[in-house]
Amino acid sequence: MEIVIESSAEKATDVVVRLVSSVIRKKPNAVLGLATGATVLLFYRKLVEMKLDWSKITAFNLDEYVGLPPRHPHSFHRFMWENLFRHVNIRKKNVHIPDGLAADIPKSCERYERKIVAAGGIDLQLLGIGTGGHIGFNEPTSSLASRTRIKTLTPRTRKDNAPFFGAPAQVPHHCITMGIGTILDARHCVLLAFGKKKARAVAQAVEGPVSALVPASALQLHPRVTVLLDTQAASRLKLKRYYRWVSDHKPAGTDSA
Ligand code: F6R
Fold it and tell me: What is the 3-state composition of the chain as percent helix, strand, coil, each rounded to the nearest 5?
């Protein structure tokens, strides 16, 4: 894992913008795995400002709430179109987001998995982390080999996401999420976490044991993971001075995953 600690969320976001822009420039038909949430809002704003060519890019989103139609103000479909897709020249047919209204959820999830494979697999998977350690909506005790499927959100995740909905009771109970196995198939995973409330989950994910109780810890099994943190999210890391030293002395052109 490469752990990059920046002095602010904005600076860490700039690093990810550079990273993703370079993937899009070097591989115009790249397959991107995308996330929603407060952490990635600034990232999408800055990425749009780069005015890149998205005409051959394919995108797969991590998750969607069950029962929310795409146009629902709090669906992840809506989030993605509002914050990214409508501002870039991506083709609608190249945008993939789990279907929260699927009549047959298991079949729809299998199709989602097949579409990722047919697209050639995900080149770069963007990830946030939940305060309980989830990636995607893989809540604690998710199988580390899981594939896209329906999951039940924990009360903590529903509470964390309540501000988007106005009231906790309005947050759906179920979601469809790529599995941890699906995420680990991506060629490069990039996790962003900002703020003190993420510090514990980040420390457990990066320095704790690999455990289904902290789904993000499964990233330790992946050969290429970049973790972008602000100082607060990094505050509980035992080896933070070492990570800073590594970043400051990184040999040019290398990846210290
Ligand atoms: C969203 C997703 C989640 C979020 C995580 C952090 O597509 O997959 O794992 O990344 O819940 O959410 P924020 O950024 O709102 O703190």
Answer: 40, 20, 40
The CA 202 to ligand 1 mean position distance, Å, reads 13
Q: How many CB atoms are located within 10 Å of the residue 18 CB?
A: 12
- Atom 12 (ligand 1): residue with closest C-alpha? 37
pLDDT recorded at residue 253: 76
Query: Could you give the percent of the chain with pLDDT greater than 70?
Result: 99
pLDDT in tens, 25-54: 999 999 999 999 999 999 999 999 999 999
User: What is the tens place of the pLDDT at every residue in 83-111?
Assistant: 999 999 999 999 999 999 999 999 999 99
Contact 153, 171 (CB under 8 A): yes
- Residues comprising the chain, all counted: 257
Whether pLDDT at 67 is above 90: yes
pTM reported for the whole predicted model: 0.97
Residue 85 Cα to ligand 1 midpoint, Å, equals 18
In CATH, what class is 2-249?
alpha beta
End-to-end CA distance of the chain: 4
Q: Where are the alpha helices (DSSP H) in the chain?
A: 9-26, 41-49, 76-83, 105-118, 155-165, 180-184, 199-207, 240-248
Q: What is the dihedral of CA 98, 103, 106, 109, to 10 degrees?
A: -20
Query: Which residue lies with its CA nearest to atom 8 of ligand 1?
Result: 136
Q: Which amino acid is at 80?
A: M
As a whole number, the mean pLDDT across the chain is 96
The domain ranges of the chain are 2-249
**Cβ atoms of 202 and 193 closer than 8 Å:** yes
